[in-house]
Design goal:
The chain is mostly helical. The protein contains 15 helices and no strands.
Length: 346
């Protein structure tokens, strides 16, 4: 969003470690450059160079045929044309921008958030194109907290990229940006259960299955599953970041690794912070609609148990056709006990 020559920091070491300080500095002292028009035509390829054909998935070594899971929040189609169309669709045709701040923590559906990130990650669209459309919308329709919040999130994206520039390869070390000496556990079966969405914690499992089937996960989901892996399971956070890198349609190095570091106490905030996953699930998926969408094996479980099926008696499990250990996994960890250990580290 902000060109490197326009930010009010001379050297990488000058980049603030705190987002608020970065945001206030660029908002006060920098300007977003206007977009430039695309060229009307491109020069020909050098003599002797053939354009060739676009390789198929099979050519690239994939066995999948590219079929999109019909449960995906969007049928993400690549390219600039669809990327620009998505900006127009979300901001203008569906008129979702005016309520973005209120809906952005949703879990189901195409328009609870913008979903611009896959096109941004692949360079099909740019932050400045989005910024210009937001300002045009503010001028013509609404100017409120939600419209500002879209720009606020674009600055977050810049922040993570500039922090990655500052951190260099420290971002990929066990101790992260700040070198926090944490005794991480290595790869074991618990990682496989986390990655495959079979932890026995419904909110985590639903989010991981969405990621595996569609290449996408909400921001709320990403924070919770990261907290599960690095905070509750004490697994090396880099395994989670690398797994996300291998799965996400919208993978961006700075944003992905920066967020994982932040949620794993090795980013710019070393505090022993964590997400209470069940509390989060009940807040953002009150009736279990999202969990049931991805975990049909919980389909007959009453709402009061859908986020904690282990609280059902064995008789209830049989009654509601969800016997733990057979129809759905038993929880691999006692979350409350892990939270006690995290708090003890403060």
């Amino acid at each position: 969003l902000y060109h490197i020559d326009d930010i009010p920091f001379e050297e990488p070491s000058d980049i603030p470690s705190v987002y608020t300080n970065f945001r206030k500095a660029v908002e006060k002292k920098s300007q977003v450059r206007p977009t430039t028009e695309a060229p009307r035509s491109l020069p020909p390829l050098p003599e002797g160079v053939e354009a060739g054909s676009i390789p198929t998935l099979g050519d690239l070594g994939f066995e999948e045929d590219g079929t999109v899971d019909d449960r995906s929040v969007l049928p993400f189609r690549g390219g600039e044309t669809r990327g620009l169309d998505r900006i127009d669709e979300y901001i203008w045709r569906e008129d979702c921008l005016k309520k973005y701040k209120a809906t952005r923590n949703g879990l189901l559906g195409a328009n609870y958030s913008s979903k611009f990130s896959p096109w941004l990650a692949h360079g099909c669209i740019t932050p400045r194109q989005i910024h210009e459309e937001v300002e045009r919308y503010e001028d013509r329709r609404f100017d409120n907290k939600s419209t500002y919040w879209m720009k606020f999130e674009l600055i977050w994206r810049d922040f993570f990229n500039y922090v990655a520039w500052k951190a260099g390869d420290r971002l990929f070390r066990p101790g992260g940006i700040i070198g926090n000496d944490i005794d991480w556990r290595d790869h074991d079966d618990s990682f496989e259960r986390w990655a495959t969405g079979t932890t026995g914690i419904p909110f985590v499992d639903a989010n991981m299955r969405e990621l595996n089937q569609t290449g996408y996960m909400s921001n709320r989901g990403r924070q919770n599953v990261a907290s599960m892996l690095s905070q509750s399971l004490k697994l090396d956070w880099r395994m989670g970041a690398a797994y996300f890198e291998s799965r996400l349609l919208d993978h961006d190095v700075g944003s992905n690794w920066g967020n994982w570091a932040y949620n794993s106490r090795v980013g710019n905030d070393p505090r022993a912070r964590y997400f209470n996953i069940v509390k989060q699930a009940k807040r953002y998926d009150e009736n279990g609609e999202y969990v049931l969408y991805w975990l049909p094996e919980l389909g007959e479980v009453p709402d009061e148990y859908v986020h904690e099926p282990h609280r059902m008696s064995h008789e209830q499990q049989k009654l509601f056709n969800c016997v733990l250990g057979a129809d759905y996994p038993k929880p691999m960890v006692n979350l409350d006990k892990t939270y006690e250990l995290i708090r003890a580290e403060r």
